[in-house]
Amino acid sequence: MLLSLFVSVSLSLMLLSVLHGYYTCYKKKLFSLHFPRSYPLVGTLLAFYKNRRRLIHWYTDLLSESHSQTIVVHRLGARRTIITANPDNVEYILKTRFDNFPKGKPFTEILGDFLGSGIFNVDGTLWNSQRKLASHEFSTKSLREFMVNVLEEEVENKLFPLLEKVCENDVVLDLQHVLRSFAFDTICKVALGIDPCCLDDSKPDSKPAQPLASAFDAASEISAMRGAATVSAVWKMKRALNIGSEKKLREAVAVVHGSVDDIIRVKKKDMDSGGEEARDLLSRLLSAGNDDEMVRDMVISFLMAGRDTTSSALTWLFWLISINETAKQELVNEVTSLDDLDFEKLKDMNYTKACLCESMRLYPPVVWDSKHAAANDILPDGTAVFKGDRVTYFPYGMGRMEELWGKDKMEFRPDRWFDEPGLLKMVSPYKFPVFQAGPRVCLGKEMAFIQMKYVVASVMRRFEFKPVCLEEPVFVPLLTGHMAGGFKVKVSKRI
Question: CA–CA separation, 254 vs 247, rounded Å?
Answer without folding.
Answer: 11
